Amino acid sequence: MPKVALIMGSKSDWPSLQGCVRVLRSFDVEVEVHVASAHRTPEKVAQFADHARENGFEVIIAAAGKAAHLAGVIAGHTTLPVIGIPIKSSLMDGLDSLLSTVQMPTGIPVATVAVGGGDNAAYLAAQILSVKYPAMAEKLAAHREKMAQAIEADDAAIQSEL
């Protein structure tokens, strides 16, 4: 079973990340969730990232707001794919979080989704895992087909109202 870690910088991020866990579980991905701060518990973050591969993780998703360095710090400690979720904060509607997450130095990439984009982080993790797990690729294709059918149904409903 594929295994993904979801690390959030603060417990207050949890409500915006529950969809991420739901999506990952819908793809039969084992998810481990932790709170760890790049600034307040830097040793814990480094230790987790240093041992993530040997602990069976294949992708790490990191969510943080404001000075959102969590994903970058994790990426500096592992060669596993890291997906950053900038969390909307009271300042700048999350733009500060977005820039802190996405602006990484060459050679230490963090794939970054939209501010508050936890669901998309999960879908991106599933796409990354689908390279290794063919059943995951099939589930992703089925999910996209379901989305397309919903749009077609919406279009038909609008057309019937005209």
What does this structure look like?
Strands 2-1-3-4-5 form a 5-stranded parallel β-sheet, sandwiched between helices. Helix 1 (18-26) packs parallel to helix 5 (118-129). It is an alpha/beta fold and 162 residues long. Helix content is 46%, strand content 17%. The longest helix has 28 residues, at 134-161. The model has no long low-confidence stretch (mean pLDDT 96). It is built from 6 helices and 5 strands. It has helices at 18-26, 42-51, 70-77, 95-102, 118-129, 134-161, and strands at residues 3-8, 30-35, 59-65, 82-87, 111-112. The protein has 2 domains: 3-129, Rossmann fold, CATH 3.40.50; 134-162.
What order do the helices and strands come in, and which of them pair?
Blueprint: E1 3-8, H1 18-26, E2 30-35, H2 42-51, E3 59-65, H3 70-77, E4 82-87, H4 95-102, E5 111-112, H5 118-129, H6 134-161
Parallel strand pairs: 1-2, 1-3, 3-4, 4-5
Helix pairs in contact: 1-5, 2-3
Q: Helical content, roughly?
A: 40-55%
The arrangement of helices and strands along the chain is: EHEHEHEHEHH
* Distance N to C terminus: 48 Å
Low confidence ranges: none
E-strand count:
5
Mean pLDDT: 96
Anisotropy-based shape: globular
Strand content: 15-25%
CATH topology term of the largest domain:
Rossmann fold
Quick synopsis:
46% of the residues lie in helices and 17% in strands. By secondary structure, the protein is of the alpha/beta class. It has 2 domains: 3-129, Rossmann fold, CATH 3.40.50; 134-162.
List keywords for this structure.
46% helix, globular, Rossmann fold, alpha/beta, 162 residues, 2 domains, five-stranded parallel β-sheet
